[in-house]
Amino acid sequence: MPFTLVAFHAHPDDESLLMGGTIARAAAEGHRVVLVTATDGSAGLADAEHGTHAELGRRRLEELEDAAERLGAARVVHLGFPDGTFGSVGVTEPSAALAAVLEQESADVLTGYDPSGGYGHPDHVHVHHVARAAAATTGVALLEATVDRALIVAGARLVHAVPGSPPIDLARMRDSYLPRPELTHKIDVRPYVAAKIQGLAAHASQQGGSSGFRTVTLLHRLPGPVARRVLGREWFREVGREPGGRLLDDVFASCRQ
Fold first, then answer.
1. Where are the beta strands (DSSP E) in 46-138?
2. Contacts of 15 (CB under 8 A, 6+ apart)
3. How far apart are CA 144 and CA 115, in angstroms?
4. CA distance 45 to 20
5. For residue 236, what are the β-bridge partners?
6. N or C terminus: which one in the chain shows less Cβ crowding within 10 Å?
7. pTM score, two decimals?
8. DSSP state of 43
9. What percent of the chain has pLDDT over 90?
10. In this structure, how many other beta carbons lie within 10 angstroms of the beta carbon of residue 153?
11. Distance separating alpha carbons of residues 196 and 16, to the nearest angstrom
12. Rounded to whole angstroms, how far apart are CA atoms 48 and 169?
């Protein structure tokens, strides 16, 4: 039976970076996917040609709509909170807004972020707290999007060793995302890597140029075989599910029990 997945993110492009393959897979398998972004990304880095502040925010929301279409998502919701200072609004207001979307959509699964927000961005950390509160209010199953920390550290070491590569704080990487023993899901998205790359490509304002090295640029330009290896798995921790044992390959596993 079809389910509804609500994917909650901090900024436009986070959806494609962290779980573009999962979104594309869920949509292709007949499930409804709704993307919710807390902010418009107007405080992010971008070349001047993409505008600044409000103009950049409008551009990034348009890019999100494009990415959603490429990934197969059915709806995009912008909650309208301030980029860069999302945490200043507290948990009550945004969690109520997110809970309203969950109830309107009769959502089966919500995704948020792990406690560190992946790599410590304050807006991402606040997504973690808001998603936790909304899930507790509605009773919707919550999966926290993350990455296997061991793979992040290994990848960072490889990039760090390449002459001319951007500086990488390896110590910070060791505290980012989640270690493998805390994961509950490893989603096989290899058949949907092309869709994920198309989702990344939609975020043109977040690609390279004078604004410097960008992860979006690096990932969406990976050669096919490398892309399948690097982007072919996506990781989650389900709140309330005991980790350990075989990792699940189904974000709706709890809904099927």
1. 75-78, 109-113
2. 7, 9, 23, 35, 37, 64, 67, 68, 71, 73, 199
3. 9
4. 21
5. 145, 185
6. C
7. 0.92
8. T
9. 74
10. 17
11. 6
12. 27
Q: Which amino acid is at 71?
A: L
Ranges assigned E (strand) in the chain = 4-9, 32-37, 75-78, 109-113, 141-146, 185-188, 233-238
What does the pLDDT look like over 51-82, one tens digit per residue?
778 999 999 999 999 999 999 999 999 999 99
Q: Length of the chain, please?
A: 257
CA–CA separation, 123 and 38 (whole Å) = 9
Q: What is the pLDDT of residues 183-202, one digit of tens each?
A: 999 999 999 999 999 999 99
- Sheet with 4-9, edge to edge strand ranges: 75-78, 32-37, 4-9, 109-113, 141-146, 233-238, 185-188
Residue 34, amino acid: V
- Do the beta carbons of residue 35 and residue 77 sit within 8 Å? yes
Distance CA 176, CA 178 (A): 7
C-alpha dihedral, 103 to 130 to 110 to 45, nearest 10°: 120
Structure-block tokens of residue 40: 């418009």
Please give the pLDDT value at position 210. Answer: 47
**Per-residue pLDDT reduced to its tens digit, 90-107:** 999 999 999 999 999 999
